[in-house]
């Protein structure tokens, strides 16, 4: 009986221990399950939060960038519009030849919208077309023969001012007559020349007078192309032509040659006086109202002149496009011989005044019967 009770106690104790053991395992299992769930929940929440934050941050950056770009574009457009409005319209006239060639770079720059002012260009074959438009107010700036600038100053009572020199000696004596070597050889001859009343006539007359030649007959034509055409028909004739028409005439007619340069003869016979062929003038009232714009033009004109050295081919292309010269090869050959330059300030004043004085001593009518006063020269001061 006692053994029987003992066995019962043992059995009950074993059952209790089994129950307790099972509860412990379930507790551990529940704990692990809870931890796993917590980890999954935490990771999921963290990842979701990171993704949301990343998306929000990316979207915010994109929106800010887009707004910044839009603001930058708006500012650029406004600045460009303001720049266009701030530009001064300047109407410029030049002659079909070296003066227009010197502006070729600026013409191209202006057409591309890269010029600092709003330029409008007029190219004419004869000086009187340009001068009449300048006097009437249809042009603001003109590139004309040096002596014509003095005549205009006197005719308008000082309403034009010279601002720079744009060309030096560009005139040559051309002929198929190989006996012509200098001015003295023109004695008893007939010479065809353009530019009656302008630089070609007065320069030729000055040289003939300095050489003591009184029996040279000068026949005037309206344009250089006309003189070149007459030489083509009669190569033994003699003509005074400017570049680039000299090069064009020689390329088209191998019977012609350069007899001499009028620049060389001027240096030989003038006693050291400065030679100035072309100058740039501005209406005095336009200069008074737009001095800064005129200074800007002068700077861009200088840069345009320098392009002849740095980009001859590009300048030649513009010259052909503007029908100043009709052939690219001729343009590239002629342009370096055109003596295109840029001189302003006190040096300009000295050279122009010396040249006009030399012409005045020959013929007062060649400069408008009297020499200009100091207010004729704009030196930027």
Principal-axes shape call:
globular
Residue share in β-strands: 15-25%
Average pLDDT works out at 82
Counting copies of identical and different chains, the oligomeric state is: single chain
Order of helices and strands: HEHHEHEHEEEHEHEHEHEHHHHEH
* Helical fraction: 55-70%
Secondary structure category: alpha/beta
Instruction: Report the total helices.
Output: 14
| Termini gap | 142 Å
Radius of gyration: 44 Å
Low confidence ranges: 22-65, 78-82
The total of beta strands comes to: 11
For the biggest β-sheet, the strand order reads 2-1-3-10-4-11
Q: Main sheet?
A: 6 strands, mixed
Q: What does the model show?
A:
- By secondary structure, the protein is of the alpha/beta class.
- The protein has 14 helices and 11 strands.
- The strands form 2 sheets. It has a 6-stranded mixed sheet with strand order 2-1-3-10-4-11, with helices on both faces. A 5-stranded mixed sheet has the order 7-6-8-5-9, sandwiched between helices.
- Helix 6 links the parallel strand 6 and strand 7.
- It is globular.
- About 13% of the residues have low confidence.
Chart the SSEs and their pairings.
Elements: H1 2-86, E1 89-95, H2 98-102, H3 104-111, E2 118-124, H4 127-136, E3 141-145, H5 146-155, E4 160-167, E5 171-175, E6 190-193, H6 199-210, E7 217-220, H7 224-233, E8 238-242, H8 245-252, E9 257-261, H9 262-269, E10 278-283, H10 284-289, H11 291-310, H12 312-321, H13 328-334, E11 340-343, H14 345-362
Parallel strand pairs: 1-2, 1-3, 6-7, 6-8
Antiparallel strand pairs: 3-10, 4-10, 4-11, 5-8, 5-9
Helix pairs in contact: 3-12, 6-9, 7-8, 8-13, 11-12, 12-13
């Amino acid at each position: 009986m006692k053994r029987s009770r003992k066995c019962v106690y043992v059995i009950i104790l074993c059952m209790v221990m089994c129950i307790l053991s099972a509860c412990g395992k379930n507790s551990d299992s529940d704990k692990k399950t809870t931890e796993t769930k917590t980890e999954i929940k935490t990771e999921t929440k963290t990842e979701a939060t990171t993704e949301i934050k990343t998306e929000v941050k990316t979207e915010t950056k994109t929106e800010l960038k887009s707004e910044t770009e839009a603001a930058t574009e708006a500012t650029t457009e406004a600045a460009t519009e303001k720049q266009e409005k701030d530009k001064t319209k300047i109407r410029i006239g030049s002659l079909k030849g070296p003066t227009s060639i010197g502006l070729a770079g600026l013409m191209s720059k202006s057409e591309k919208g890269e010029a600092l002012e709003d330029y409008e260009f007029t190219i004419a074959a004869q000086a009187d077309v340009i001068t009449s438009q300048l006097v009437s107010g249809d042009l603001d700036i003109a590139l004309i023969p040096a002596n014509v600038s003095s005549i205009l100053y006197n005719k308008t009572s000082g309403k034009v001012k010279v601002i720079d020199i744009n060309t030096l000696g560009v005139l040559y004596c051309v002929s198929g007559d190989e006996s012509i070597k200098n001015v003295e050889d023109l004695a008893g001859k007939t010479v065809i020349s353009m530019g009656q009343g302008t630089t070609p006539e007065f320069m030729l007359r000055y040289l003939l007078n300095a050489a003591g030649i009184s029996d040279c007959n000068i026949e005037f034509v309206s344009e250089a192309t006309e003189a070149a055409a007459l030489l083509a028909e009669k190569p033994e004739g003699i003509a005074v032509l400017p570049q680039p028409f000299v090069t064009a005439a020689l390329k088209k007619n191998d019977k012609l040659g350069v007899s001499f340069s009028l620049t060389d003869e001027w240096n030989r016979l003038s006693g050291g006086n400065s030679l100035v062929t072309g100058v740039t003038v501005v209406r005095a009232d336009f200069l008074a109202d737009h001095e800064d714009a005129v200074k800007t033009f002068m700077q861009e004109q200088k840069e345009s002149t320098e392009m002849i050295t740095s980009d001859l081919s590009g300048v030649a292309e513009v010259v052909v496009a503007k029908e100043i010269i009709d052939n690219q090869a001729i343009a590239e050959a002629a342009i370096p011989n055109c003596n295109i330059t840029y001189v302003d300030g006190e040096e300009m004043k000295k050279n122009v005044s010396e040249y006009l004085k030399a012409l005045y001593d020959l013929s007062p009518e060649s400069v408008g019967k009297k020499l200009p006063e100091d207010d004729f020269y704009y030196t930027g001061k």
